[in-house]
UniProtKB/TrEMBL annotation:
Name of the protein described by the UniProt record: Purple acid phosphatase
Signal peptide: 1-17
Organism (species): Adineta steineri
Ranges of residues in domain Fibronectin type-III: 23-115
InterPro entries: Calcineurin-like_PHP, FN3_dom, Metallo-depent_PP-like, MPP_PAP, PAPs_C, PAPs_N, Purple_acid_Pase-like_N
Enzyme Commission (EC) number: 3.1.3.2
Length: 456
């Protein structure tokens, strides 16, 4: 009895008028680019009896592992559910190509100091050094349908982190809206928290840039009407759990934005809402958006690509990623056709006009590489030697909790289809040469690779 009383007294303390039971550490740490010479550090805490347990989020950072020249910065907090509070701190005026060490400082109400993590800032825009990008889509958590496919891909992402400058997740991140499908039968918030905890080793130490997919729109994939908590609708979880450079690139939050990294200008678009006949827009099954009307995103994309195309001498490569593919082969049932006609109508003319180098999508649960194609999807060449127009890559094979796709009808422009869980890697070697590959996360072997030449 005395021992029990001792434990209770030790574990419960009165702090600023509220009880603290077992202080916890910050979790789900992640780093993202925030425009030139800036980085956002983000994390989650679980709150203290429904109240914000970190009213003044602070990060300490330094170029020294011992923090001899440390700088402390305050940030902001937001939430959409009383069980989670999301904190963001902007680190500004950083030096290019420099490794920084950081830690999240303790809060007075029940939150411990974090461990030490690190990131390396982007090189100067136009720096001729090679850039290595790891691309993943449709990842989610393990269940009975993917038989551990998600965790194998997560392990693979950790293994290639040291060889990766930044990661891009092309939508369908946690599949929290599929909760109850297979195991472990987690609820919506549990599924999000589980996924972000599993990914922390990657996201805390490498820039992890994200784009929206259909599984980020609402809390029930079978229909927004089944999402009974209004706090979980209209991309709410996605918009709170990540902080992408939408403001800094004149885009819109985490939904569409762009950034430069050395040789590449990278653009994220939203293929779910905010354009005519968008598949997840107002009045559709998922009922998302619109945030900037039917033309706001398209007007932004045109201006962004026009500026990037005019800057090719300094930043030669332009890559666009959106969740849904415009062209691709037909999968067998129960997988549904993945090509988005309204997306193609809205976005592809701009990609063609400004000679975008790659369009990387997901959504279909395989990897497919297309030959260079014209605006109608017909192959114009069977090689990648300085061909015009975007090269289309479908990369939705991360973990696919709804199951892998297998091919029913390949299109004539299909160069390679891989029905295995894994991720793609894109190496921009210099201003004219790139190498694309796909890694099977079960064997960690490359099962597709190709060299691409562009005379920018």
């Amino acid at each position: 009895m005395l021992f029990t009383l001792f434990i209770v007294v030790q574990c419960i303390s009165l702090v600023h008028g509220s009880f603290c039971i077992l202080p916890r550490s910050p979790e789900q740490m992640r780093a993202a680019m925030r425009g030139p010479n800036a980085v956002t550090i983000s994390w989650r805490t679980g709150g203290n009896f429904g109240k914000n347990d970190t009213p003044e989020p602070r990060v300490e950072y330094s170029t020294s592992k011992t923090f001899t020249d440390k700088v402390t910065v305050n940030g902001t907090t937001d939430n959409y559910d009383k069980s989670s509070f999301f904190h963001n701190v902007a680190l500004l005026n950083l030096s290019p190509s420099t490794t920084y060490y950081y830690r999240i400082l303790a809060a007075p109400t029940c939150v411990r100091e974090s461990g030490i993590h690190s990131f390396t800032t982007a090189p100067l825009t136009g720096n001729p050094s090679a850039v290595s990008i790891t691309l993943v889509g449709d990842l989610g958590n393990d269940n009975l349908l993917n038989l551990g496919g998600s965790s194998r891909t997560m392990k693979g992402l950790r293994q290639v982190a040291d060889k990766t400058d930044f990661f891009v997740h092309i939508g369908d991140i946690s599949y929290a809206d599929d909760y109850g499908l297979g195991v472990p039968f987690e609820f919506y918030e549990q599924s999000w928290n589980s996924w972000q905890k599993h990914m922390t080793e990657v996201t805390a130490n490498k820039f992890y840039m994200t784009g929206p997919g259909n599984h980020e729109v609402t809390c029930a994939i079978l229909g927004d009407f089944l999402c009974l908590n209004s706090n979980y609708k209209n991309f709410s979880a996605y918009l709170h759990r990540f902080r992408m450079p939408g403001d800094e690139s004149r885009g819109y939050k985490n939904l569409w934005y762009s950034f430069d990294y050395g040789l590449v200008h990278y653009v994220i678009i939203n293929t779910e809402t905010d354009f005519p006949d968008a598949p997840s827009g107002p009045g559709t099954l998922l009922n998302g958006g619109n945030f900037k009307g039917l033309t706001g995103q398209l007007d932004w994309l045109k201006a962004d690509l026009e500026a990037a195309n005019g800057n090719r001498a300094q930043v030669p490569w332009i890559i666009v990623s959106g969740h849904r593919p415009f062209f691709g082969s037909l999968p067998k049932l129960p997988a549904l056709p993945g090509n988005c006609d309204s997306c193609r109508t809205a976005f592809d003319p701009l990609l063609q006009q400004y000679n975008v180098d790659f369009y990387v999508s997901g959504h279909v649960h395989w990897y497919e590489r297309l030959y260079p194609i014209d605006a109608n999807g017909n192959p114009i060449a069977y090689n990648y030697d300085n061909q015009p127009g975007p090269i289309h890559i479908i990369n939705g094979a991360g973990g696919a909790p709804e199951g892998k796709a297998s091919v029913k009808t390949p299109i004539s422009a299909s160069a390679k289809i891989v029905s295995a869980f894994g991720f793609a890697r894109l190496e921009l070697k210099d201003a004219s040469n790139a190498r694309l590959s796909f890694v099977d996360s079960k064997t960690m072997q490359e099962v597709d690779s190709v060299n691409i030449t562009r005379h920018h």
